[in-house]
Amino acid sequence: MQNLKVIYEDNHIIVVEKEPNIPSQADKTEDIDMLTIIKNYLKEKYNKPGNVYLGLVHRLDRPVGGVMVFAKTSKAASRLSDQVREKIFKKKYLAVVDGKFEKETGTLEDYLYKDERNNMSKVVSKDKKNAKLAKLDYQVLAYNEVKNLSLIKVNLHTGRHHQIRVQLSHAGHSIFGDQKYGTRGQGKQIALWAYELTIEHPITKEEMTFKSLPESNGTWCILRNISTDI
Description:
Blueprint: E1 5-9, E2 13-18, H1 34-46, E3 55-56, E4 65-71, H2 74-85, E5 90-98, E6 105-115, E7 120-124, E8 132-144, E9 149-156, H3 163-170, E10 192-200, E11 207-211
Parallel strand pairs: 4-10
Antiparallel strand pairs: 1-2, 2-4, 3-4, 5-9, 5-10, 6-7, 6-8, 8-9, 10-11
């Protein structure tokens, strides 16, 4: 069975670390996906015959790793989906990007248009039909002068298709290893990681925050320079 790193589990939800390059759900590649991996884990752990219910509440792009929550009951799935819509559900990301920022903190606000045909998004005029507002905050955590790379923390206000990747690329700070929108690190793993997830427990209503950090090697060795708790 595929290795699964479980961060938290109870009768209603399961929080796991998604490894990079595993789809959140089945796609046309037919590669093993997170829903299938977790269903297999639950079947084996609880010795359940037949189908196991597991609700997909949110997704991470295939190349991106990090924290994900799945619902173990339809009631939990419905309530978590409501939280996504009502923006109670909060995701924070780490990214290693090209260049040095002028400001340590800032906000990027753009209008994005998704081109369904080639599964890419781009920054467009707000007047373009089907353009959607995209907003994020960033904070610079470290800068590597030798490699001219910055480690940043990203807080999403909206959840658009490929949003972080497109907005940072448009701002001149494409994510290292981004094969679609990047300028550097082609052939490398994208340096984007969903490191923190905050939800309201669907049953107890308790606010819960879960964290997962990438291993500080390769592109992520810049994490070793961080003294503060992120």
